[in-house]
Each structure stands twice: as structure tokens, then as C-alpha cells.
Write a structure and sequence with these properties.
The complex is a heterodimer. By secondary structure, chain A is an alpha+beta fold. Among the domains of chain A are: 187 residues, N-terminal domain of mukB; 182 residues, no CATH class; 79 residues, no CATH class. Chain A is built from 25 helices and 19 strands. In chain A, strands 7-6-5-4-1-2-18-17 form an eight-stranded mixed beta sheet. In chain A, strand 1 and strand 2 form a beta hairpin. The radius of gyration of chain A is 89 Å and the shape is elongated. Chain B is mainly α. Chain B has two domains: 61 residues, Orthogonal Bundle (Arc Repressor Mutant, subunit A), CATH 1.10.10.2250; 117 residues. Chain B is built from eight helices and five strands; from the N terminus they run H-E-H-H-E-E-H-H-H-E-E-H-H. In chain B, the strands form two sheets. Chain B has a three-stranded antiparallel beta sheet with strand order 1-3-2. In chain B, strands 4-5 form a two-stranded antiparallel ribbon. In chain B, helix 4 crosses helix 8 and helix 7 runs antiparallel to helix 8. The two termini of chain B are 30 Å apart. Classes of the chains: A alpha+beta, B mainly alpha. The interface between A and B is medium-sized, with 15 and 14 residues.
């Protein structure tokens, strides 16, 4: 130790932490010897007040800071003092209690620590109010420092120091900003058993902070920021794309609207003029029409009168014609009748002869009328005929008749009586074979006649029950001679002829009378014929005249008919004119009504028509000329156009609102709706270019994001490099039986890969190949890219931002001799207690060393409890490693550890601990036995 | 140690997930994982008090360690173990790095190939059709070993448990079937 070793020299506690006095050497390794729970840790922890200063970074285990303060500063004569050898010379840093409040304050001065400076002559300790004066008396001008100021001094923060302050830098850090980290690790090194892998990771991160661009990346907000425009544009694009049909419709509407505006603008003055002139036009026209109608009424009256006359004429002529025709027909009939009559004389001759025949008849009839009537003649005839027939028969049966027979056979009386009884015709019947009277047996008949005789007595015939008187009867038949008979027959014959002639005459008289009547009738007919014929002759004489008359009548009738027809035509024509006139009037009135209505329904007195010319419109190329009769149509169509324009306005506004509601608001910033629509249509037309533009933007957004992620990734790489260096540092010497002891970062694969994906995408984009490599939607629709993004966003949201520390975890890689290295997350479980303790200590020391300015080394101290768990070999090793890192080790154990240079037992007097330098045992290697006297 | 339950904001979802035998995976349940990372000791203490052993593996998964498994989970585990082992073997033969298993896509084509190559072994474990493989993977997905997305399965970090076992076995002298089964029993 020939070289001057800057660093801690000793720690002194006066009236603090249960120690009446404690002096602990810190210039080399120390073994504090005491049973458990006798204040070893309290002693070491006292250093926190001087080295950590900031009470927030101090740690006293389960004790609250309040209790700790009371424990360390029971009154205003409690001191914690540290002597340090600095390049500027020996210096003392102290902390003194302020009394009942258990508060404390810092002071420091240059010079060595002499305990007598703090003791008054009466053996009592100097109290806080007297301290500065006392030290000044002792030639050590001390100064009270506020905590922050002292901290700045100790950690070499020049900026916070005053130039006249002495240099008290105990911890020359490479970056003074790391003071807080350093303090935290330092606090830990005072109690290293609690160091865990999580803390190691945090400390290492803080240590390497200056090498890393360690910013917290709020990935989501970065992404959203970069993609805000893109997403907005995309949303607008999508909205337009979705609504293409609607927009096309709107474009049509807008086109129609402009056309309408042009049309309305053109027609408006014309309509105004037309309305102004209408009243006069209407009155004139109406008057004209009324006059015209009156004239027509008169005309039609005249026509009707004429027509009546014609009808009358026609009826008369018709009658005339019928009469003529009748005559003519009669003439023809006569002509036909007398076709075979040559002249009148013929007829007269005929009549003459007829008359003569009649006169003859009249004479005959007069003769006949003097005779008897034909009926009586006819009776006479029958009577004579009968007589004639009777006579004939008598003549025929004159020789053999019944009478004769009877006369022959019968007595005369009987015969007489019988002839009286039997009829003449019976008696005259011939008695021959095959006739009515047959006489088969004359004897029988004579017997019968005898019997009959009996019954006949004197003119009486007695029959059983009947008696007949025959006296009154005459004999019926007296036999005449043939002569007599023949005379009588010829008389009868002559009488019959006479009677028949007479009958014929009488009968012919009736016939003659009938003939006479017939002749009379014929004469009458002939008389009529003669009259007719005379008429015919007359008619034949004036035939030509008659025909003439007939033709005239017909002609007249024809003329009347024609006139009647023309009259009807004329009448219907005038009536048509009347109707037309009325229609025209009606039409005119209806137009008037319509115009009045339309005039009231005009919309162009209100906005937007009042400033229509200022709105965009398409000039109308129509000829705006107005004819009065079409004014009503015109104004109505004009009103309709206005109405249509209003509807279109409404429609377009509604459609635009629909679009706004659907999220399309890109064009809302335009000054007017018209411009908004124009911009919208222009955008829609160039939709494919817009898509490409969005894609470009998306790519540049990815590039932007990637730049941020690149920082993260680079930081991770730097950290890995630093960790390798750090591993080299802790592996300079073998620890215990550990062949390998490394702390390695393990990347969180998914996150690093996600970052890599985004970066490589951006590289592709930047290299400009992407247009060939990807199709249009590459960046926006890239599945892998989106997955990466989601992963990072999820992670960032869960952790409130992405940091490099989230990209890896630390593992302890440990291998003993003859073992393959194994990874451990928790150092505690990696090996035996002692080994773990060493590993932790070395890690901690290495971390502290890492932060120190390698150019200035000031040896400080660290503490290892339960040192007995390490064997001597390891203890020595540890002491050496600690020395290399600039630390002296303080072992604490119930037994002395002979590897340390000092063995310091803690003594107890009156319940108070004390360590006197007189109790220090200084161990030296035997081969270097010349002990130096104690200072 | 005092537990302040209001600080354990994800207690309910965490317990629900873990007590159902599901594995919590770092990138599937990021929020829960971060909560667990921040309050690990508290959760571990609380669950321990309730009789559950919470294992948090820094590689990105956590689960309740349990000694007993039902016959069903035992069967599932055995089959899944076999399937995964074959998968790892197959992928190793393809020259893929085993530790990057999270990047593999287990699509139908891959399962088809597995089936073709190993169907004899698979059938020995009563996995008789490629369809059966999907069913096993579906079951495994329900307990957080896999996730089905984008028409393919993806192994999750929890599969490290199997991979660790396989490595252990590979280091041992006799990597025979018996040991696999023993190891599986150790898993549950």
C-alpha cells in the first residue's frame, strides 16, 4: 500500500444508534464481529445519512424514517462522522442531531477527524449549536451545508456548487445525473442480500441510460399521429367509395340544378313582362270573343227560319207529286185495260147487241108467266105415270092372276068377300112359277076356303076375337078387258107428253129471267167502260203536259232537298263556331285563373331566387320569347322549375348531410356548399389517384414510425453490447465455483420481431422498390404489418408506453465446473447461498463501478452480512474484486473473518455499544510482518 | 406483508383465467401479464394463501401449478406431448430453430404432413385421423398452449413447458416413452 489510496478512512458514531462511541476503520477490509442483533447493521446503515443524504433513497428495512431518526439522533450531541482522503486532502463529512426534534444537519470541513474536537474539557460532547464555533477553535473551519448542496458536493455536481467550496467529491460519477441511481445501488450494496433480478435489470437500465436513447415511446399515439392523416384520408376515401352511387346521383342533381338556375335566370324577366301585359290582353280578347258570339247567334236564327220555310215547301211539293203519280198510274191501268179496244164505236156496238138480246128475253118471259106453276104440273105427271104403270101390269097378268085363280077355286060369296078384302095390286099379281103368288095344292086351298066360308056370314067376317063388317066395302077389282085396258094406257101416254112440254116451258122461264138480268148487268159494265175509255182518251190527249208537270215537281223537290242540306251544314258550322268561341272563352278564362293562381304561387320572390344570379349556373341557350296565349303554361312550368330547384336544393342538402353523417367531412371546410360539392365531385373523379396518394402517405407514415422504432431497436443493440462489456467486467475473476456467471438480455421475440417487421417494411418503402413489390394496398392492408402494429400497440397500452426495457428480460446464466450453463431468472434460485451472495455483491459493485469516472478512483465501502457463509478463498477473492471496483469490504459475522485486514469487535458497556480503535485487530500476512504503527 | 387488494386491479380476471387451468401468455393477455409483472409477489402471496402455486415464467407465461390432473387432462397432456414432440422433431428436421416455435404456422398442410410421417406413432396413442390432431390442438388452445388465428394454429410461450421437458429428456441417456410419460405427470 505504498501508493496513496484515496477513499474512506474511518466512520465514527458518537452518541448515536445505541453506540456511545464507535470508530470503524474503512481504509481496508473489515470484519465486524458481534453476535446477531448487536447493531452491526445499524452501524453500516449510519453511512446512508452521509452518503445517500436524500432520505427518500435511504432504506432502513422495516423501520420508519421517523423511528430511525430518533434512533440515530436522540439529542443534539449525536454525531455520524466520516473521514475521507480526497485528492484535495483529508476531509470530514458529518451529520449532527439538532435536539428534541430528532432533526439533523450536515457539516463538512477539510482536515482529519479528531474525536477530541467533539469533546469538551468536561468530557461531554459538543452540542450542535456550539459545534461550528468549537471546530473553528480547533482550526477546522467547518461549514453547515443543506442536504442538497452537500449531495451536489459529494457527487461532484459542479453546477450546483459554489466556486469557493472545497472539493468534497467522494463519488466521481461519469454522469452526475446518475447520482440518484448510484445512491439507490449504493443503498442496496449496504444490504445486498435483497438484490433481485428485477432490480438488477432496472439498475442496469439506469446505468446504461445515457448510452441508450431511452425514451418512452407511446407507440399507439405515435402510430395514430403518423397515421392520423392517412387514416383520416382513408376514412374519407372509404366514405366516398362507399357512397359512389349517391355521389354520382348528387352530381346529376347538381348538374340539373345549375341548368335549372340558368333557365330560371333567363326566363324570370320575360315572365315578369308577360304578367305585366296579361290583363290588357285578356280583356281585349275576351271582348272580341263575346262580340263574335253575338253575331253567330243572329246568323243561326236566320238559318233556322229559312229552314222552316223549306220544310213547308217540301211537304207541299211532295203532295203534288203524289197526286200526279196517282193520275199517271190510273192512266196506265186504263191503257192496260183497253189495250184491245180500238175505238169507242166498238164498245157502243157491243152495247147495242146486248140491249137487243135483253129485249127478246123480256118478251119470252112475259108469255111464260101466264101458265100454271111447274110444281102442279109435276104432280099431275106423277099421277098419270102411276096410272099408266098400273094399267100396264093389269094388262100383263090378265090371263093368270090371283083374282082369276080365286074366282076359279072359291064360291062366289067367299070370292066376293075376299075381293073386297084383298087389294087390287094383290089380286092382280100373276100366279105363276117363280112369282109372288104360288098355288101348290088347290085341294088344300079349297078346304081352307070352306073353313073361311064358315067364318063369313052375310057381309061379315068372323075371326076368333075379331069381327069385320064387309058390307061397306066394294069389290076391288073388276076385270076389264084388254081392249079397255089398251085404250086407257094410250090416254095416259098422251096426257104424260102434254104435261112434260108444259113443265119445260115453265121451267125455261126462270132461266130466261136470269139471262135477262145478266144482260142487264153486262150493259151496265159496258156503260162504265165507255165512260172510262172516254177518260182514257182524254188523258192520252194531255199526256205530254202531265209529264212536264211531273218533271217540274221533281226538280223542285230536288232543289229543296239540296237547299235543306246546305242549311244544315251551315247551321252545324255556325254552331261549331259558337262552340269554338265558347271553348276559346273558357280557355281564356281558365288561363286567366291559372295565371292568377300561378302569380300567387310564385316562389322566386324568396331566397335563393333573389340572389340566383350570384350562384353558379349553366347559361340557358333557349330563345326566351313569350307568346301571350302560352303565358299560363309558361309561368306554370316556370313555377314548377322553381319548385324543382327548391326540391333539388333540399335533396342535395340532405344528401350532403347523409355524407357528413357517414363521416365524409373532408370538404366541409370549403367556403360554400357549392364549392364543397365541386370539391367532392372532383375528388370522386380522381378516386384512383387519391387511393395512390393515400398509399404514399401510408408509406411515409410507416417510415416515420420506423424511425422511432429504429431508436428503440438501436438502444436494444447498444444495451446488449453494454451487457457484454458488463459481463466481461464481472467475469474478470472467477466467482466461487462458478465457471460461468453472466447476466444476459433475452429479447422479447414477438416485440422485437414486430419492430423489425415495421422497420423492414419501411426500408422496402424507402428503397422505392415497393411499387413493384406490393400491390396498391400493400401498406394499408399488409397483414403482417398490421399484426406487428397491433402487438406493439397492445404492449404499449398495457405498459403505458414502449421502452427499451420492455424489449428484453435479463437472465442469469450460471454454470459450475463440468456443467452446461443454465439460465435463471431469479438469481436467488441459481446456486448456493454463499455463491448467490457473491454474485449479487459483484453484480452490485460492478454496477456502481460502471457509473464511476474511471479516471478518478476514490475507494468507498460496501457491506456484506452473514459473511461466514463464504469460505475464505471466496472472501479473499471478493475482497480483491471489490478492491478492483474501488470498494473496501465490510464483513459482518458473529465470528472474526481472518481474510479481512481489520477485525473489529463490538463491545457493550452500560447497555451501550462501543467500538474503540483500541479494540481493532489488524491482520497482516505473515510474510509481511512489520506492522505499521497505528495512526 | 400487507396485501392491498384494491391495488391488485386484475385479480378477478387473473384468477378466473388461471384457476381454470389456462396458461396466461404474455402476448395474448398483455394487460394481465403486465399487471402480474408489476405485482408478481403480491399475487403469488395471495394465491399461495388460497392454496394455489402461481408460477410466473419470464419467458412469457404463467400458470397455477397443480399436482393432480384429471384422467382427461392426463390423456390430453399425453397426446399433446406426443404431438408436440413429433412437431418439434419434424421442424428440427426442416432446419428450424426450436426456440422460435412461436413463429410457426401450424396450418392444415403441416398437420397433414405430420400425420403422413408419424401416423403409426400417433395411432398407437389412439390418434386415428388428422381430424383428431385438430381436436387435440383445439383442446390445448383452450388452456393457453396455442391460439388459432388466421386459419392456422400458433404455439404460445407456454409451450416452453413442453420444450423444457423435451430438452431434459434429450439430455438424459434414454429418451424412451416411459420417461416421457413420467415427465408429463410431473407437469401436472
Amino acid at each position: 500500500m505504498s501508493l496513496i489510496q484515496y477513499g474512506f478512512q474511518k466512520l465514527v458514531l458518537l452518541n448515536s444508534a445505541g453506540y456511545s462511541r464507535a470508530e470503524l476503520p474503512l481504509d481496508d477490509s473489515v470484519s465486524i464481529i458481534a453476535p446477531n442483533n448487536t447493531g452491526k447493521t445499524s452501524l453500516i446503515n449510519a453511512l446512508q445519512f452521509l452518503l445517500i443524504l436524500n432520505k427518500q433513497h435511504m432504506e432502513f428495512g422495516a423501520h420508519s424514517f421517523e423511528n430511525t431518526r430518533r434512533f440515530y439522533f436522540p439529542d443534539n450531541s449525536a454525531y455520524i462522522l466520516l473521514e475521507v482522503l480526497l485528492p484535495s486532502g483529508m476531509a470530514v463529512i458529518g451529520c449532527v442531531g439538532k435536539g428534541l426534534s430528532h432533526d439533523y444537519e450536515y457539516f463538512a470541513y477539510q482536515g482529519s477527524l479528531d474525536l477530541d474536537d467533539y469533546r469538551l474539557d468536561d468530557g461531554k460532547l459538543v452540542t450542535q449549536p456550539q459545534l461550528i464555533g468549537r471546530l473553528f477553535e480547533c482550526g477546522k473551519p467547518a461549514k453547515i451545508y443543506p442536504q442538497a448542496e452537500l449531495r451536489a458536493l459529494l457527487y461532484g455536481n459542479r453546477q450546483k456548487q459554489r466556486s469557493d467550496d472545497p472539493d468534497f467529491t467522494i463519488f466521481p460519477l461519469e454522469f452526475t445525473s446518475q447520482a440518484a441511481t448510484y445512491q439507490r445501488i449504493l443503498t442496496r450494496t449496504l444490504r445486498l442480500d435483497r438484490l433481485d433480478s428485477k432490480e438488477v435489470k432496472n439498475y442496469l437500465l439506469e446505468i446504461f441510460k445515457n448510452d441508450l436513447q431511452d425514451r418512452r415511446v407511446d407507440f399507439k399515439s405515435e402510430w395514430d399521429k403518423s397515421f392520423a392523416d392517412v387514416n383520416y384520408d382513408k376514412s374519407q376515401y372509404d366514405a366516398v367509395f362507399r357512397n359512389q352511387t349517391l355521389i354520382a346521383d348528387m352530381e346529376d342533381n347538381q348538374q340539373t340544378r345549375r341548368t335549372l338556375r340558368g333557365k330560371i335566370t333567363l326566363w324570370r324577366p320575360v315572365i315578369e313582362q308577360g304578367l305585366y301585359e296579361w290583363e290588357a290582353y285578356y280583356n281585349n280578347t275576351f271582348e272580341q270573343l263575346t262580340q263574335q258570339l253575338k253575331g253567330l247567334v243572329v246568323d243561326i236564327q236566320a238559318l233556322e227560319n229559312r229552314q222552316k220555310a223549306v220544310y213547308k215547301d217540301q211537304a207541299e211539293t211532295d203532295n203534288l207529286l203524289k197526286g200526279q203519280q196517282k193520275i199517271e198510274q190510273h192512266c196506265q191501268e186504263l191503257t192496260l185495260r183497253f189495250e184491245f179496244v180500238s175505238d169507242l164505236l166498238q164498245l157502243q156496238n157491243q152495247r147495242q147487241s146486248l140491249q137487243e138480246q135483253r129485249d127478246e128475253r123480256v118478251r119470252v118471259i112475259k108469255n111464260a108467266e101466264q101458265q100454271q106453276s111447274p110444281e102442279s104440273i109435276k104432280r099431275n105427271l106423277v099421277k098419270v105415270g102411276k096410272e099408266h104403270a098400273d094399267l100396264q101390269r093389269q094388262l100383263a097378268s090378265l090371263n093368270n092372276n090371283l083374282y082369276l085363280q080365286l074366282q076359279k077355286l072359291l064360291p062366289t060369296d067367299s070370292f066376293e068377300l075376299l075381293t073386297r078384302l084383298l087389294a087390287k095390286s094383290v089380286l092382280s099379281l100373276p100366279a105363276t112359277e117363280n112369282s109372288a103368288v104360288k098355288l101348290d095344292n088347290a085341294v088344300a086351298f079349297q078346304s081352307f076356303a070352306a073353313q073361311l066360308e064358315n067364318n063369313l056370314s052375310a057381309n061379315r067376317l068372323e075371326l076368333p076375337g075379331l069381327s069385320l063388317d064387309l058390307s061397306a066395302l066394294e069389290a076391288n077389282l073388276t076385270l076389264k078387258t084388254a081392249q079397255e085396258l089398251e085404250t086407257e094406257i094410250s090416254d095416259c101416254k098422251r096426257q104424260l107428253v102434254e104435261l112434260q112440254n108444259l113443265l119445260q116451258t115453265v121451267e125455261t122461264l126462270a132461266e130466261k129471267k136470269r139471262q135477262q138480268q145478266e144482260l142487264e148487268r153486262q150493259i151496265e159494265v159496258l156503260d162504265a167502260d165507255i165512260t172510262d175509255y172516254k177518260e182514257l182518251l182524254l188523258m192520252q190527249a194531255n199526256g205530254a203536259e202531265r209529264l212536264q208537270i211531273l218533271a217540274e215537281v221533281l226538280q223542285k223537290l230536288e232543289a229543296l232537298k239540296r237547299e235543306e242540306l246546305t242549311l244544315t251544314d251551315q247551321k252545324s258550322s255556325i254552331s261549331q263556331q259558337q262552340d269554338d268561341n265558347k271553348i276559346t272563352q273558357k280557355e281564356l278564362q281558365s288561363q286567366h285563373q291559372r295565371i292568377n293562381n300561378a302569380r300567387h304561387q310564385r316562389l322566386d320572390q324568396h331566397p335563393p331566387f333573389t340572389y340566383l344570379e350570384q350562384l353558379p349556373f349553366l347559361p340557358c341557350m333557349e330563345m326566351a320569347k313569350l307568346a301571350m296565349p302560352v303565358l299560363a303554361d309558361r309561368i306554370e312550368s316556370y313555377n314548377r322549375d322553381c319548385q324543382k330547384l327548391n326540391t333539388l336544393d333540399d335533396n342535395l342538402n340532405r344528401q350532403l348531410m347523409d355524407l357528413h353523417r357517414d363521416g365524409l367531412n373532408k370538404f366541409q371546410t370549403q367556403d360554400s356548399t357549392e364549392q364543397e360539392l365541386d370539391a367532392l365531385f372532383a375528388y370522386t373523379v380522381n378516386l384512383s389517384q387519391e387511393q395512390a396518394a393515400i398509399e404514399r402517405k401510408a408509406r411515409s407514415a410507416v417510415v416515420q414510425i420506423a424511425a422511432i422504432l429504429r431508436d428503440l431497436r438501436d438502444s436494444l443493440e447498444t444495451l446488449k453490447r453494454r451487457m457484454r462489456e458488463f459481463n466481461n467486467k464481472i467475469n474478470r475473476r472467477q466467482l466461487s465455483d462458478l465457471k460461468v456467471f453472466k447476466i444476459e438480455p433475452r429479447e422479447e421475440e414477438a416485440l422485437v420481431k414486430a419492430i423489425q417487421t415495421l422497420i423492414s417494411t419501411s426500408e422496402q418503402v424507402e428503397s422505392g422498390n415497393s411499387f413493384d413489390l406490393f400491390d396498391h394496398n400493400a401498406v394499408l392492408d399488409d397483414k403482417e404489418l398490421n399484426h406487428a402494429k397491433d402487438t406493439l400497440i397492445k404492449e404499449g397500452e398495457a405498459r403505458g408506453g414502449l421502452r427499451v426495457e420492455h424489449l428484453f428480460r435479463l437472465v442469469f446464466i450460471i454454470a459450475k465446473e463440468n456443467q452446461t450453463p443454465a439460465e435463471f431468472e431469479d438469481i436467488d434460485s441459481a446456486a448456493s447461498n454463499g455463491t448467490v451472495l457473491m454474485a449479487k455483491l459483484i453484480t452490485g459493485l460492478a454496477m456502481l463501478n460502471q457509473m464511476q469516472d474511471p479516471r478518478k478512483t476514490i475507494k468507498t465501502a460496501c457491506y456484506l452480512d452473514e459473511a461466514a457463509s463464504l469460505d475464505q478463498h471466496n472472501q479473499r477473492n471478493l475482497i480483491e474484486i471489490a478492491a478492483e471496483f474501488g470498494f473496501t469490504l465490510i464483513f459482518a459475522s458473529p465470528e472474526p473473518q481472518i481474510t479481512a485486514r481489520y477485525c473489529v469487535p463490538i463491545g457493550t458497556t452500560n447497555g451501550k455499544n462501543h467500538i474503540s480503535r483500541l479494540n481493532w485487530q489488524i491482520l497482516e500476512p505473515i510474510n509481511n510482518a512489520d506492522l505499521k504503527p497505528l495512526p | 406483508m400487507t396485501l392491498i387488494l384494491t391495488q391488485l386491479t386484475q385479480l378477478q380476471p387473473l384468477f378466473k383465467l388461471l384457476s381454470s387451468g389456462t396458461h396466461l401468455n404474455r402476448f395474448q393477455d398483455t394487460e394481465l401479464w403486465v399487471e402480474l409483472e408489476n405485482q408478481q409477489s403480491h399475487y403469488q402471496d395471495l394465491f399461495a394463501a388460497l392454496g394455489f402455486v402461481l408460477v410466473v415464467d419470464g419467458r412469457g407465461f404463467a400458470y397455477f401449478k397443480t399436482d393432480q390432473g384429471s384422467s382427461y387432462t392426463g390423456k390430453l397432456t399425453r397426446r399433446l406431448a406426443l404431438l408436440l414432440m413429433l412437431l418439434f422433431e419434424y421442424q428440427a428436421d426442416q432446419g428450424l430453430h426450436l426456440f422460435q416455435f412461436q413463429q410457426w404456422r401450424l396450418d392444415t398442410a403441416l398437420l397433414e404432413k405430420l400425420w403422413q410421417q408419424y401416423h403409426a406413432i400417433l395411432e398407437a396413442e389412439e390418434m386415428n385421423s388428422p381430424q383428431m390432431l385438430t381436436e387435440i390442438l383445439d383442446s390445448a388452445a383452450r388452456v393457453g398452449f396455442l391460439v388459432f388465428e388466421d386459419q392456422a394454429y400458433r404455439l404460445l410461450t407456454a409451450v416452453h413447458r413442453y420444450l423444457d421437458l423435451f430438452e431434459e429428456l434429450a439430455q438424459a441417456e434414454r429418451p424412451d416413452q416411459l420417461q416421457v410419460e413420467n415427465a408429463e405427470e410431473a407437469l401436472f
